[in-house]
Write a structure and sequence with these properties.
Blueprint lengths: L10 H6 L3 H8 L7 H13 L5 E4 L5 E5 L2 E6 L16 H16 L7 H17 L1
Parallel strand pairs: 1-3
Antiparallel strand pairs: 2-3
Helix pairs in contact: 2-4, 3-4, 4-5
Bound molecules: zinc ion.
């Protein structure tokens, strides 16, 4: 049986992750605007993502490469519990976008492919270790 889709995450990412409980809890954990870049920076360092740029004002989050560098775009507003699907700043969103930046840096994986989910799972294990 397929595991349930995680609120605030794509179906196939929810199905393919090996860190289902961690991903579920990451999407349910709000982040402040102050702590989001600190978390992104710490995880980027642990994963070897070099020269990460963080930009603001993207309603649903974006991630990948911009001007040849790994990049994420984040929403300004903190997620309201229960409203993950409307976007909003939370751990799960930062990790989701950071996995896109990792795929850009290491040149693996199309968006939300199995290679992408492997990168996301690595970040989830790092978050679990430092959270
Ligand atoms: Zn994505």
């Amino acid at each position: 049986m397929r595991p349930k889709r995680i609120h605030g995450e794509y179906s196939r990412v929810s199905w393919w992750t090996t860190e289902y409980e961690t991903l579920r809890s990451a999407h349910a954990t709000p982040l402040t605007r102050e702590s989001a870049p600190l978390l992104a920076g710490a995880l980027a360092e642990l994963r070897g993502i070099r020269g990460l740029t963080v930009e603001w004002g993207y309603p649903y989050g974006r991630g990948g490469g911009k001007r040849g560098r790994p990049w994420i775009g984040l929403p300004r507003d903190q997620m309201m519990p229960g409203f993950e699907s409307l976007g909003g700043l939370r751990v799960g969103l930062v990790l989701h976008e950071l996995a896109h930046a990792a795929c850009f840096q290491f040149q693996v994986g199309a968006n939300h492919s199995r290679d992408y989910v492997r990168e996301l799972d690595r970040l989830l294990r790092e978050w679990k270790a430092i959270a």
